[in-house]
Amino acid sequence: MSPSAPWLDLPEALERQLWQHARRVWPQECVGMLGGRRAGGGWQARALYPLLNVAASSEREYLAGAAGVLRAWKAMREEGLELAAIYHSHPRGPAQFSRSDQQQAAYDVPYLIADVVSGQLGAFLLPQGVVCELRLGGD
């Protein structure tokens, strides 16, 4: 990864919560938001907000429920955080973005994709498809 590549710092506790969410709703795709702060060329995640997937074909796509999204935005504002990432799972892999993931991308933050089968996480700026360095662990 080049020194100028965008990055996302994901603390161990948040990574654990993300995987718990993905496994709990399997075989559907999970979806959620990460709150945090922008820092230099990347983002530091500090809070995870699981959302309800209301997509008609939730095993193949995601659509976050509006009420949950509003609650997450409100919580971020109250906690002094901003949107740091969007996450969702691919129940049967891979940890790579799909064409529909690119088409749905609406925010200039990393999109984290969890491959439930392999246990891999991928992070990308979408719709461009730029790979983000995923810094796991820490506090």
TrEMBL record:
The keyword Protease applies. Keywords: Hydrolase, Metal-binding, Metalloprotease, Protease, Zinc. Residues 11-112 form the JAB domain. CDD domains: MPN_like (cd08070). One of its GO terms (biological process) is proteolysis. GO terms for molecular function: metalloexopeptidase activity; zinc ion binding. InterPro entries: JAB_dom_prok, VirAsm_ModProt. Pfam families: Prok-JAB. This is JAB domain-containing protein. It comes from Deinococcus irradiatisoli.
